[in-house]
Design goal:
mainly alpha; 11 helices; about 70% helix
């Protein structure tokens, strides 16, 4: 155990000195995710009954791509059972690849996963130090559950990215809490709420918490809530 700890500390120390360590770990996360998507997931689909799209988000993505409507393709009737963000993400993946399914969405989710690790790196480096940031990013890159989500048509990869982006936006805002900077966490929260309704209460909770913890003045905190509400309102 002591030898292992010495080895880990040595690796971390070298990584801390490397300027592009965060980017390299993000690329590693992308490679690991793609390897799981392309090599591991196809081999366990049947033995473990891993249904690709249990929540039927796929037809919504095709509905937006084919008909420009949030509807269960080929049905043209609009649906209100799901938020639009994940279907729009899938439609964008389909549009870029001219309908490659499900590979386009799996690759897109792998890219979001890699981006999530970069956000984790930035948050940890801002709040603590570069050593902690590298350790946190590595833990994220090798997290088995996060890798598992990238292979299936589940909203979790997008939600994980949006939640991490929201924390990053709040962190950036609290470094200099001005009304202008409040727009970033507000807009991020608005997009997250359109992905999953569980985020909607935070349109009110976030400004209250920012003021209660003295991380922001009331005017700037209210701007964050208003920015989120304006995203959701349409």
């Amino acid at each position: 155990m002591r030898v292992r700890a010495i080895f880990v500390n040595s690796v971390l120390e070298r990584a801390v000195e490397w300027r592009f360590a965060g980017l390299a770990i993000a690329v590693l996360a992308l490679v690991l995710s793609l390897a799981f998507v392309l090599l591991v997931y196809p081999s366990i689909t049947d033995p473990y009954d891993a249904v690709l799209d249990p929540d039927r988000y796929g037809p919504l993505g095709f509905g937006i791509w084919k008909n420009g409507t949030l509807a269960q393709y080929p049905d043209p009737e609009p649906s209100v059972l799901r938020g639009p963000v994940y279907p729009v993400f899938m439609a964008a993946c389909l549009a870029v690849t001219n309908g490659v399914w499900p590979g386009s969405v799996q690759v897109g989710q792998s890219l979001l996963f890699a981006a999530t690790t970069l956000l984790v790196f930035w948050i940890a480096q801002t709040l603590w130090n570069r050593r902690v940031a590298i350790a946190a990013q590595l833990a994220c890159a090798f997290h088995p559950l996060l890798l598992w989500y990238t292979s299936r048509i589940w909203i979790e990869t997008v939600l994980t990215f949006l939640f991490t982006a929201l924390i990053a936006a709040i962190t950036y805002f609290t470094l200099r809490p001005t009304p202008g900077r409040a727009v970033l966490p507000g807009c991020t929260l608005g997009v997250a709420a359109l992905a999953k309704s569980v985020f909607v209460p935070f349109v009110v909770i976030l400004p209250l918490v920012l003021v209660a913890t003295r991380l922001s003045r009331p005017r700037a905190a209210v701007c964050a809530g208003l920015a989120a509400a304006l995203w959701i309102l349409p």
